[in-house]
Amino acid sequence: MLKVLGKWLKIYEDEIGLFLWIAALLFLVRSSGILLNNYAETAFLKRYGVEYLPIVNMINAVATFFIMGVMAGIMGKLPGARLLFYLFLFCGMSVAGIRFLIPFGIDLIYPVLFMLKAQYEVLLALLFWNLANDLFNTRQSKRLFPLITAGGVIGQILGSFGTPFMVRMLSFDNLLFAYLATCVVGAVVV
């Protein structure tokens, strides 16, 4: 079955394992991102409204510029897989730490979380695609990257449709622990 599917998708036999691994990794990046995105946007808009979105987005754009500059320097010093591993853990643990601050009623948490979700999404995607570029040559990339992207799309779809189910099972604020869990799984998969 796997050989037939590989032949149909033009994945060579020696690439199947690496392809499945990297597609699963993008699935985890995107599914975790959509969980955090759904929580952060809902919580921010509920407490602050849309009138603060331009301010937060402007601050976020400036922060992205500086964070990417720092990340470019770090990427030259550490292997991509190790950096992605550490970033997965950092993202998950920092969001779980924020979850423990929610009962204290600090309203500033929500704009910070809104900004973090955008930063984490960009950073994880950057490191993922940097790793993918290290693993595949140009010819393979042309064939496989559209298929790998499908793993991310499936992760976003399942994360979106799974969010209401998780909210019913865990409660809305505990979605942040679900994000932690997907980040830990992502770190293990790396």
UniProtKB/TrEMBL annotation:
InterPro entries: ADP_ATP_car_bac_type, MFS_trans_sf. The chain crosses the membrane at residues 55-76, 83-102, 108-132, 144-163, 169-189. Keywords: ATP-binding, Membrane, Nucleotide-binding, Transmembrane, Transmembrane helix, Transport. It is a multi-pass membrane protein. GO terms for molecular function: ATP binding; ATP:ADP antiporter activity. It is found in: Membrane. Its main location: membrane. SUPFAM superfamilies: MFS general substrate transporter (SSF103473). This is Major facilitator superfamily (MFS) profile domain-containing protein. It comes from marine sediment metagenome.
